[in-house]
Amino acid sequence: MAVPQVDVARARAFVLAHGGAVDVARMEGILGRTEPDRAVVRALERLQNSDGGFPVAAVARGAGAALGTTAAGGHHEGQDTIASGGRAGARGAADSGASSIAVTCQILAHLRDIPPLAGSPMASRAVAFLRRSQSVDGSWSAAQEGVDPALLTASAGYTLAVMEPDHPDPIVRAARWLRRTLADGAGDTRAEGTEHSREGGPGRVAALGSGSDRSAALFRAAAVWGHSGDAAAQDSAYALLEQRDLTAPEIAGWLATFVELGLAARHFALAFRLLGRLAGLQQTDGSWPVGEGSAVEATLAALRVFRGFRLVGE
Predict the structure, then answer these.
(1) Which of 51, 53, 98, 123 is least enclosed by beta carbons within 10 angstroms?
(2) pLDDT at position 204
(3) Are the C-beta atoms of residues 139 and 180 closer than 8 Å to each other?
(4) Domain boundaries along the sequence of the chain
(5) pLDDT on residue 40
């Protein structure tokens, strides 16, 4: 099988032409730069609230410029689906709204693209905010964000698995809640679009809303299940995801879970197929396509994956 090939030079030129300062800093971090621009770091620090979280206003309002959102771009990658429904609430430290679980997960993913920031005090405060926000039953739920709890819990649980793997309790509780909520629908393709799962409860996969929401919830939940040792639930979710016509950001988001949490030997062939699909979607201008959202974000997501699999150099 041929190794997937991508045009890094054109992708880089696309981000430089259409991205903001944080986008460029993330691209440089993905491609190997170890010292981020101090102005970018200060811009991100100003957006963090005193409780450690980041507000919806950071990506859904004018402050998007500080996060690298272009005028034509809109939202961000696979995670834009968990941020776009939010609304700002009480005043935060930056006078920009209440902290959002969804947006905090999103910005922590951005910080991981800039290696020194992934271990910074800013990231540690954000991770602590996520831990404190978890419910006793293992879920995350924030009605004011307009986000399905399954998608929110999969995103937050996945973020903790990546950022704090040595603190397993919140991850295990999230995995159990996701297993109860999603796994029956994930394991039975007939459950999608049906009224009830096999246990008689609501068909949660069917209830997740848009297709991109369902896919994002499943590949993040599957990553949490795999991290927690539930290979059966993970493989059932992967079987369902493979049947879907996934967008470039969804494929990149799924592959990123392998980069960040490790790739089991039984998934080597799956990862190779996904890499080939993603490489084939690169456009002539160097970008990756999106239905709704930012082509810059989709391009960064793809570069992150190919760099993570060591298929592109600096």
Answers:
(1) 51
(2) 43
(3) no
(4) 8-308
(5) 93
Query: Could you tell me if 59 and 106 are in contact, meaning their C-beta atoms sit under 8 angstroms apart?
Result: yes
pTM: 0.83
Residues 6+ apart with CB under 8 A from 289: 247, 248, 281, 283, 295, 298
In terms of Cα–Cα distance, which of 233, 70, 212 is closest to 151? 212
Q: Is 20 helix (H, G, I), strand (E, B) or coil?
A: coil
Tokens of 227: 């991290």
pLDDT computed for residue 217 by the predictor: 93
**Alpha helix stretches (DSSP H) within the chain:** 8-18, 21-30, 38-47, 57-60, 80-83, 101-113, 115-118, 121-133, 149-163, 168-178, 184-187, 211-227, 231-242, 248-261, 268-280, 295-308
Q: Which of 89, 113, 105 is nearest to 19 (CA)?
A: 113
The size of the chain, in residues, is 314
Q: Residue 96's pLDDT is what?
A: 58
Query: Quick one: tokens of 139?
Result: 């879920």
Q: Determine contact, residues 155/221, Cβ cutoff 8 Å.
A: no
3-state DSSP assignment of residue 159: helix
Q: 59 vs 1, 173, 227, 269, CA distance in Å?
A: 40, 29, 29, 36
Hey, what CATH class is 8-308 in? mainly alpha
Consecutive 10-residue runs of the chain (314 residues): their mean pLDDT? 87 96 95 90 93 83 38 36 34 62 95 95 98 95 79 96 96 96 52 37 40 86 96 94 94 98 97 96 96 90 96 77
CA distance readout (Å), 271 to 21, 259, 274: 31, 10, 5
Q: Are 222 and 238 in contact (CB under 8 A)?
A: yes
